[in-house]
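We now fix the convention by which a protein and its fold are recorded. Think of the row as the fold of the chain written in a discrete alphabet. Here is one such record, which you should read through line by line.
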Amino acid sequence: LKPHFEGKPFDVTEENLQARIRGNILMALSNKFGHLVLSTGNKSEMSVGYATLYGDMVGGFAVLKDVPKTLVWELARWRNKKASWDLIPEEIIVRPPTAELRENQKDTDTLPPYEILDRILSLYIEKEESVEEVAARTGFDIQLVAKVARMVDRAEYKRRQAPPGIKITHRAFGKERRMPITRGQ
């Protein structure tokens, strides 16, 4: 790709290559040894398209597909309390979330903090509230809520290509919430 990218600045294209290479390696191991690759994306990331097609979205089953990020953290802490040791290292739970595709990257470079994002997503997706209703109910800036809603609408094409997963919420993507893939374009 070097000759094609020459003179172009480094951007998400190169970042996504890293995730896609990892996805190819995992799928090769799956093919060779007959194992099922589990996709790591959660509902928060899948909602706004914060995932790489054929990268971290690769897999045959998405265990966390309908689990918001804040609930993932709660479940990790709950699991550790039930174990006699930190099965999931605490530093993984408390460190700032990152896609780890570039140096010093944090999810909050692109997204609002997950506590805010998950609240917006819950009202916009689960309760089917409008941008104006979400902003009024939460007190969040209407421009932020509108940005998140646009991200959700634009990410429909990615969600259509995601592996199946467990349904735990009232409105899981797929059957309960399915929009035209061109809706947010």
Observations:
- DSSP finds nine helices and two strands in the chain.
